[in-house]
Amino acid sequence: MSTGAGAAEGGVFAAVDIGASSGRVILGRVTSAGVALETVHRFPNGVVERDGGLRWDFDALFAEVLAGLRAAAAAAAARGEKIASVGIDTWAVDYGLVDSAGNLVAQPYSYRDDRSRTAVAPVHAKLDPARLYQTTGLQFLQFNTIYQLATEKDLDGLQALLIPDLIAFLLTGVRRTEATNASTTGLFDAVAGEWATEFFAALGLRKDLFPPLIQPGETVGTLLPDIAGQVDLPPETPVVAVGSHDTASAVAAVPAVADGGRGENFAYISSGTWSLVGLELKHPVLTGASREANFTNERGVDGTIRYLRNVGGLWLLSECQRTWAGEGFQPDLAALLTAAAALPVGGPRINADDPYFIAPDNMPGRIRAAVRRTGEVLADDPAAITRCIMDSLAAGYARTITTAERLANREVDVVHVVGGGSQNTLLCQLTANATGRPVVAGPVEATALGNVLVQAQAAGAVDGGLAELRRIVATGTSLDRYQPLVAARQGCVN
């Protein structure tokens, strides 16, 4: 993939991009013609049952990161290129605990583990939820870092590193917490942009439990000599902080300037395993109404605020596919979506962001059970279940955008869908129908582009701020556009 002009010659950057189900190491080549992405290594990711809970196999994950960086070094060397830096983005909220010697004491828990559910009430007994929101602006989710930490028994001598920060630490030996991810912990002051140290004290946590903050574009450190030898890169190769929360990187690459200069009037949907739906603001919205609507205020690149809600995502469909495959049925995804699109509007829907759907387990059965609880019936048919998922996601997107407009006093002209879901033509059209706004779909690789472009900006290979990064993406990316169909919208929104 390549993006349009606006970049200087010579930058080659390695992006480590890890999601909840898979990861990749990507080379981004920045030239006067734009940015070209080359995936040099792919690997699976997922939770495992270990030591009494759902955890990430972090040792295996880090080994794949090293393999990917070796592949990146080899690919660059084959072209006579030098990798200028490495940037890391992953999902949010989860962390590893490291001792004073730098050893990971256990494989990190996954947010899909149910352990933090019982910690919510004790945390709220010490910190009133209204006070929490007025300071952090964070959406209530039972797996937020603050609740996970409340389940830990003994943190003496340990430090918590969020997953991308943990990877950066193992590469460089330097402990830092990147700000966009720190803002998802429930321990970060949304206005001051610093740790909310009074909350640490109230919960009996050390104020230095997390390392100091670092901003996107700042250098974490350079590769440890042993690591450099393992990946065939020079020890002076810097690891640069990017929007390490993958959504922060994805939103940085929203091609909003393509909308006739009305970039400030867009809503975004970062569509993948989860859907992150919201607006980009200059200041957080910390009102009681915002808290009641369960919106979050997270940091973005260049100090922006990602005002959003988590909505269910394509996890629902991928889990259905996994269940069907286990039953010996492996439908082609394109054919499945075509069959779903042929079904009439007005079918049953679910609340796609219900915590009932978080854990992995017989997703088709759970979706049908949820429909039954609404008094409707959903056929045990993959096309019907797929259509239910797509309709439910689109309706959830529309509700979320409408609520965000009201709470932030902002009118939306266009909806940008980035990430894997931008390839789902049925979902994009249903979203246009449900929102009554045009949908611009793409880029698919928004997260990797945001990661690479922040590195390029830090290296001086790109001039300008966030608007220039977006202009580079918009100029050369192939985008698909969907206009709302009024008749379909009437059947899609309730």
From TrEMBL:
Keyword line: ATP-binding, Disulfide bond, Kinase, Nucleotide-binding, Rhamnose metabolism, Transferase
Listed EC numbers: 2.7.1.5
Every Carbohydrate kinase FGGY N-terminal domain range: 14-251
Organism in which the protein naturally occurs: Pseudarthrobacter defluvii
Broad class of enzyme this protein falls into: transferase
Keyword Protein biosynthesis belongs to the record: no
Family: Belongs to the FGGY kinase family.
Name used for this protein in its record: Rhamnulokinase
Domain of life: Bacteria
GO molecular function, one term: rhamnulokinase activity
